[in-house]
Design brief:
The chain has about 350 residues and is of the alpha/beta class. Helix content is about 40%, strand content about 15%. The protein is built from 13 helices and eleven strands. It has a nine-stranded mixed beta sheet with strand order 1-9-8-7-6-4-5-3-2, sandwiched between helices. A two-stranded antiparallel ribbon has the order 10-11. Strand 8, helix 12 and strand 9 form a beta-alpha-beta unit. Helix 1 packs antiparallel against helix 13 and helix 4 packs across helix 6. It is globular, with a radius of gyration of 20 Å.
């Protein structure tokens, strides 16, 4: 495992990493099976303590509020006496809060004393009808609005608890969810130097969208791309259907049906809807790797977890961050683990690493 870390990393977390390196577990051997494992497994665990929260957000590329909302599900630990703080968890491309991996890491954090907010991004999952349009890798305006609203909610509903413990607010982004939270941190601008989050963990997150797009288009990833594109098409279709735009618009229906790959999806829908001049403009401006060094002061302590055999997202951009030796970055690159996999004999290794890192900072 390649490791780049800040000098102030706790000795307990360092010892934990030394004693518990990632090892694949049979039968999930190799990057592809590690990636697909959660698709094959049925999740019988259900939360009974979710509180639904609607977060008001402005219309895309506008300062106006037109009754668009994000849907968040807040779950609190049973014992508030040892409450450690809040964690906002975001999903990846074509996902939602229903994804197994997101629910699993949320349970891990809740069982260890954290309050967890599972956030559906614009147009995703059961929140589809609450907002027009779809999220992108740099939908920072949505995320910043939601987090600012959440902070106000915490000060109201957990006023006494927050005063006593000065509760931190962390973030976990799975795959593109990490890119989105990282971009939001980079775009957050407060005069008093306040950071958007107190810590952020990114698991298998693309830092360079162009290299990621080229990777998913490789012939060996044909099935992956078809699967992802199918989910994205359904997301588009459902959105336009809710807005009443699809029924009598054969041109739009044909445009969606004929999408051949994710690059085309981004070129024809994502980039223009979020005000980018072209696909290339979107991929450059929404790739955090090009802005991290310049805006480093805006970032909280960061944890990056990536695997060298990730079939979807190349690890090179994350590896380059190690060479920068940025003081508040902890970077873990494993030989195995797939994309957002890391399934070991003791469960999901990355879930446990994230939990222990939050406790250590």
């Amino acid at each position: 495992m390649e490791l780049g870390r800040n000098n102030s990393i706790s000795s307990s977390f360092s010892e934990y990493l030394k004693n518990k390196p990632f090892r694949e577990v049979f039968p999930w051997i190799g990057g592809d099976l590690q990636t697909l494992r959660d698709t094959f497994v049925i999740d019988f665990g259900k939360s009974k303590r979710n509180k639904k929260i609607l977060f008001p957000i402005n219309k895309i590329l506008s300062e106006n509020f037109e009754c668009d909302y994000l849907l968040g599900l807040l779950e609190l630990p049973e014992n508030l006496s040892s409450f450690k703080g809040f964690v906002i968890v975001t999903h990846g491309l074509g996902g939602s809060t229903k994804r197994f991996g997101l629910r699993r890491i949320s349970r891990k954090l809740t069982n260890n004393g954290f309050g967890v907010l599972k956030l559906n991004l614009r147009g995703s999952g059961s929140a589809r009808y609450l907002a027009k349009g779809n999220y992108c890798a740099r939908c920072s305006s949505d995320v910043i609005s939601a987090i600012k609203y959440f902070k106000k909610l915490i000060n109201l509903e957990f006023k006494d608890l927050n005063k006593m413990n000065n509760l931190p607010i962390y973030g976990v982004g799975l795959s593109l969810g990490g890119t989105i939270l990282l971009n939001a941190c980079l775009d957050y601008d407060e005069n008093n130097g306040e950071k958007l989050l107190d810590g952020l963990a990114c698991v298998s997150s693309p830092l360079d969208l162009s290299s990621c797009s080229l990777c998913i288009e490789k012939p060996r990833n044909y099935v992956y791309q078809k699967w992802l594109l199918h989910r994205l098409k359904n997301q588009l279709w459902d959105g336009y259907n809710d807005e009443g735009k699809i029924l009598n618009n054969e041109k739009l229906r044909k445009k969606i049906r004929n999408l051949k790959n994710i690059r085309e999806f981004d070129q024809k829908f994502t980039a223009p809807s979020w005000g980018f001049n072209s696909l290339e403009d979107y991929y450059v401006k929404a790739s955090p790797i090009f802005r991290i060094q310049k805006s480093i002061k805006k970032l909280p302590p960061m944890l990056f977890i990536h695997s060298k055999d990730d079939p979807w997202v190349p690890y090179n951009a994350t590896l380059n961050l190690i060479k920068e030796s940025i003081n508040n970055f902890t970077i873990l690159i494993t030989k195995k683990g797939g994309h957002n996999g890391f399934h070991s004999i003791n469960g999901c290794w990355s879930d446990d690493v994230v939990k222990n890192w939050f406790i250590s900072i």
